[in-house]
Amino acid sequence: SLAGDVPLSPASFLTKGSAMTATGSHGCGRPHHGGYDGMGIGALDPRMLCTLTVARYFFQSFAVPQLEGWTRALSGAEHLLGRDAAPGFACAVLRVVQAMRRSRKSVFHFSNPDCSNCAARLSGHERLLLNALRATLEDRPDNAEGHAMLLCEGNDTSEFLEEVEALARMMEARPHRVLN
């Protein structure tokens, strides 16, 4: 598992942040580090699932740079949203991820997006991220702040919440069927 700061590649936009590690246990070759809360992704609405999918590939870019997950984040967004909406959405998700990384200090656990069994499960950290976004979309700022505080480990959440708000505004403004 990665600990502390991760050496960053140009794809990471040269920002410093917490380490990321994928968790798995179903033959994908990655160890299971726990942190699963028992919720599968089947309960997620399409907007949350799209966000999670794109975010997981960005997470993978930091945890295992040689896999170049950022390329799949972009192509996945294009596949789900279309050529016009994908770049803005992917960049908004990346800004949320980067703001979170700058605030947290410990390793962020996420499910391996390349293993169908692992990808079908939410890690506890992923759930907090999606709950902050969902609360923002539902105009429940106190709830969003609570989830952000847990996710960011009691550190400053202002930048993270600003980026979540920007992503939520984008999701509400898009006429695409996945985002609305």
Protein described:
This protein has 7 helices and 4 strands. With 180 residues, the protein is mainly alpha-helical. A two-stranded parallel sheet has the order 1-3. Helix 1 runs antiparallel to helix 2 (69-81), helix 3 runs antiparallel to helix 7 (158-173) and helix 5 (124-137) crosses helix 7.
Note the main sheet: 2 strands, parallel
Would you report the number of β strands? 4
Number of helices: 7
Q: Which structural class fits the helix and strand makeup?
A: mainly alpha
Strand content: 5-15%
What does the radius of gyration come to?
A: 15 Å
| Oligomeric status | single chain
Strand order in space, largest sheet: 1-3
Instruction: Sketch the topology as an H/E string, one letter per element.
Output: EEHHHEHEHHH
The rounded distance between the terminal residues' Cα atoms is: 37 Å
Mean pLDDT: 81
Which descriptor suits the 3D outline? globular
Ranges with pLDDT <50 over ≥5 residues? Answer: 1-17
Give the helix level as a range of percent: 40-55%
Which features would summarize this protein structure in a list?
disordered N terminus; 7 helices; globular; 9% strand; two-stranded antiparallel sheet; mainly alpha; 180 residues; single chain
